Amino acid sequence: MIKYLIFLAGAAVCSGGIIYLLLKSSVVDLFKDKPSPRKIHHHPIPRLGGVALITAFLVFTAITALFNQRLSLLSTVPATAFSAILLASVAILIIGFLDDTPFVTIRVRHKLFMEVFIAFTAVYLLNVNIGRLSFFGAFAFPLWLSNIVSFLWIIGLANAYNIIDGLDGLAGSLSLIAIMTLAIIAGIGGQSSTVFLSIILSGAIVGFLVHNMPPAKTFMGDAGSLFLGTMIAILSLHIGKTVTPGRAFIVMPLIAAIPIIEVLITMVRRYCKTNDKKAKRSECIHSMVIPDSSHIHHRFLYRGYSQLQSTVILFLLALSLCCGALCCFLAPLRFIPAIILYLMVPVVLTLDRLGFGGRFKKALRISKSRYNGYRITPLIGVIDQGGAISDLLAKKSGDEIGYINLSEAAPSDFPQHLHAAVLHYGIPSADTINKAETLSSILCRPVFVVEEAGSDKLFFKEVSKNGSLIIREKTGPVEMLIKDLQYAALAGKIRHLPPVQPPATLIRNHESRYAEAC
Questions:
Q1: How far is it, in rounded angstroms, from Cα 330 to Cα 321?
Q2: What is the CATH number of domain 379-517?
């Protein structure tokens, strides 16, 4: 146990230290990931995590190999599996390094070719496969079919973790819990060397997560996500062949369930969405690989959760599924169906609450509309002194609109998915419009300044900073304000303002004006 902890801490320090040194160097300018309308971040963030993570893993794997004769750490890892791990690490490190720099353009087909090369070499040349895949030992599939499944498993998991890498800390935390689960299963099966490799990889992830948790200082990039997916795939194939031969088909998918579910839902959703437009079959198939912003993690943001909250929820869901995988590995066969049904409950409820499954509801006649529950709940930020307006809006709106109470913090710290904002002060002043103007400029959204007009009526001003200042005044019941908020949510951002965060100098100027107004 002491050896495991030493290697875990050493890999974490190595990975975190490399990232820290790179962030302090001038090299960081070569790896910056610029923001775009589809991405979550709003200012350039370097993609250094993947290179540092792979480097730390290779360094400590080399140290382990050097001390192997003295400590007997890698005695139970076949040379073929160890070679596949090193091959994948070096290949992804080279391609990922080139992809994360602006000098070389690595296209999707180049990455796919690399994945096919790694999977073919590992499965057909180095004999890294799931073995004769069997159904609880009752009957076994032919070896050629198991090789095809192993080949697709490596490619599929590599892309699955690449797709799920959309929030700060998400892909790293999901990979960490999956690898630690594989380490536990390997430890139970007496695969001490596999445990060491998993521990080294886990330590490298921990060092990366120190710099990647919200707000992230660095991203892992495609290099890190493809590397983690490939490592989980190769380790799971080795463990499934040697430790869980009769249950690998159900244990291993549970360990990587969240990325797998994300990939399957994304492909089906994109295909069906394009097919609804009466497009050609080739266009429908091509749409399955076109990026969008309707993934599982995006849906949490649209429901009003922060990046940290979304990451924690998905991590806990993955943790429960990994615990279920351990139960399926250890429990008698007769309990496995009950375990699977139990694990389906949180997954199905989560997907339903996020708006997935409307097409199946209509097919089963549970819902008349395929889009029932699919809409994005408008999120309105509220700065309310006293709480009267906030409570009134929440009561009258019901579940149609989500409200987030904001403090007098800097505008750049406000959630980035707000559809509008409401300001209410007990005694309005001349500076209130200045505050609303500043918020509208930063958020690129309308801001409503609300005052009581007596007899259940409100007097409010809609403030939009659209190059020039636009103010619309209205007097009416709270329902009128709610309708205007809904319209603001449907209208989206102010059209000809930039869709990304303004430059840092502009943000500082706005924050200083906002602080003076407050």
A1: 14
A2: 3.40.50
